[in-house]
Design goal:
With 553 residues, this protein is α/β, with parallel strands linked by helices. The protein folds into three domains: 131 residues, 3-Layer(aba) Sandwich (Rossmann fold), CATH 3.40.50.300; 57 residues; 218 residues, P-loop containing nucleotide triphosphate hydrolases (Rossmann fold), CATH 3.40.50. The chain contains 19 helices and 18 strands. The longest helix is centred in the middle third of the chain and has 43 residues.
Length: 553
């Protein structure tokens, strides 16, 4: 039997007055690779912090094995951006950090005139320094720096970044440094809260490889279903404040959950039918007992009441509240987009030279096609989008050469990765009514389809979470009545249920789609062609991401 590392028993926790976890029970054993899934706001990050002892449960207990070490990577890494990349990487192990600090203190003492002029005192400091050195070596310090550097390289960071401050790195790169420091430390349990956010495809594949080879237990929160399929052996589903564990990958979980819900619905209907029959029998016996004053009929009624009381009631499977998105589209030009020999360069300040991003790009999209645009971060995908938007008259990014032609009956709808099409000072309802005039009551009703209640619809856009802004952009996209969609990372801030709603809407969409995405599960389900942009050129592969990966390998 595997060792139990942590066990949550009857744990409850609330945020202000809103219950998040309610009598939750969950056991984590050594060696497990667990995918923690649930809707945005269901309490996944709260649950990780309870395991970590950063939060205390209101009721229940959290058991942790003796001397258990836990490493935690939050959504936004808690690193000092003034530190160098290497310093941050070396700060993973609390024991080595403590020993390094104490060694530095002893070395400073040995250089203090007050100490080195006193032979006895200097001897004591030197002896303490020697003991610390031995402990430092025993903790694996001699190879620690080398392992940190090797792991940083494996995660795609180059040697010339090691001495640079974290502040010069992208958000994805800072997250990789945070992951590297944990991997080298090697705690018993790794708690990873969306470690793949802001990573390109190569970064996600590296994370998968490292997590797969990690010897300890891993609990990973992610909306990347492809990643969950690659690294986990069970799914812990957090729903309505409770955890249910399903063995297998995410795809197996999705199928098994659907089958379980269908079975529960069948059992529920059968039980409700039986309950109706018993209640009808009770009414008949009570009526007969009142007419003929027969104790036998009264006993039969009481027996059936007891039968209902003893019955284990089957709950009706609850349908998770999801947004309702419809992207109608319409039949326009047969040739939607034609790009020929497109070129674009930017000045590179450090070298005072021009950096070519697009070097003669060609791309042709027809009505009804779904094309996925992939490539490393910085390859120029968003630049290409901005050039297309300029050609559509809704942007200003002009190419250096080549041409972009949109069909005469093409209307472009744009989903921006950084939500720059939204107005931070406007309210949610203002965003909708500005795009399409409607009565205020109708606007609130429409926003309800996207999970905005009355209070949320009155918030300013700048106060919304990333997921809320994503749903607001999709609401505006639905009102745009476009037949050519340019989507830049549309699933980045969406939870899995919302991503599935978007996928279903895109499958029914009567138009063309060009989508930038690092969501491989999404690409496999939606696109019928992948355009890989790298080194300024596009390479096309028929099929989804899996076909593209096979061709690339």
């Amino acid at each position: 039997m595997s060792t139990i590392l942590t066990n949550l028993v009857d744990v409850s926790y609330s945020y202000i007055t809103r219950p998040i976890l309610q009598g939750l029970n969950w056991e984590i054993q050594a060696g497990q690779k667990i995918g923690l899934v649930g809707a945005n706001g269901s309490g996944k990050s709260t649950l990780l912090k309870l395991i970590l002892a950063r939060l205390a449960p209101e009721t229940g207990t959290v058991f942790r094995a003796k001397d258990l070490t836990i490493g935690y990577l939050p959504q936004d890494p808690e690193l000092d951006l003034g530190e160098s990349v290497l310093e941050a990487g070396l700060s993973g192990s609390p024991e080595i950090v403590r020993l390094r600090r104490e060694l530095a203190e002893r070395e400073a003492q040995m250089g203090d005139p007050v100490v080195y002029s006193d032979a006895a005192r200097l001897t004591r400091v030197m002896d303490a320094h020697e003991q610390l050195l031995q402990a430092y070596e025993a903790a694996g310090s001699l190879t620690y720096e080398g392992r940190v550097m090797a792991t940083l390289r494996e995660l795609g960071l180059t040697d010339d970044t090691f001495e640079q401050p974290l502040s010069v790195l992208s958000g994805g790169q800072v997250k990789l440094v945070g992951l590297a420091r944990l991997l080298v430390w090697g705690p018993d349990v790794l708690l990873l809260d969306e470690p793949d956010n802001h990573l390109d495809l190569a970064g996600k594949e590296t994370v998968e490889r490292l997590v797969n080879h990690y010897a300890g237990t891993v609990v990973i929160v992610s909306h990347d279903r492809y990643l969950l399929d690659q690294v986990v052996d069970r799914i812990a589903e957090l729903e309505r404040g409770q955890i249910k564990v399903w063995l297998g990958t995410y795809s197996e979980f999705a199928v098994n959950k659907q089958l379980a819900m269908l079975r529960q619905e069948q059992l529920y209907r059968a039980q409700q039918k039986r309950i109706t029959q018993i209640e009808a029998a009770i009414k008949r016996f009570e009526l007969w007992a009142s007419i003929v004053v027969d104790e036998r009929h009264a006993r039969q009624a009481r027996a059936r009441y007891k039968m209902l009381e003893r019955m284990d009631r089957i709950e009706r499977p609850g349908e998770q509240r999801r947004m309702r998105l419809e992207l109608g589209g319409w039949r326009g030009s047969n040739k939607v987009l034609e790009i020929r020999r497109l070129r674009k360069s930017f000045a590179d300040p450090p070298t005072s030279s021009q950096r070519t991003v697009l070097a003669g790009v060609d791309l042709l999209i027809w009505h009804g096609e779904r094309v996925g645009l992939v490539g490393p971060n910085g390859a120029g995908k968003s630049v290409l989008f901005r050039c297309i938007l300029a050609a559509a008259g809704i942007g200003t990014e002009q190419p250096d050469g080549g041409e972009i032609r949109l069909g005469p009956s093409v209307s472009v709808g744009y989903y921006a990765q950084q939500h720059e099409t939204l107005h931070p000072e406007w309210t949610v309802v203002q965003e909708i009514r500005d795009l399409k005039p409607m009565y205020e009551s109708d606007a609130y009703g429409f926003l309800g389809r996207f999970l905005f209640d009355y209070e949320a619809a009155q918030k300013k856009v700048g106060q919304l979470s990333g997921g809320e802004r994503s749903r607001l952009q999709l609401a505006k996209l639905m009102l745009s009545d476009a037949n050519f969609l340019l989507l830049d990372e549309p699933t980045n801030n969406l939870d899995i249920p919302s991503s599935e709603v978007l996928e279903a809407a895109l499958e029914e969409f009567n138009g063309a789609v060009l989508v930038i995405s690092h969501d491989r599960y999404f690409l496999d389900r939606i696109v019928d062609r992948v355009a890989g942009l790298e080194d300024g050129a596009i390479t096309e592969v028929e099929g989804g991401y899996s076909d593209y990966l096979l061709e690339r390998q």
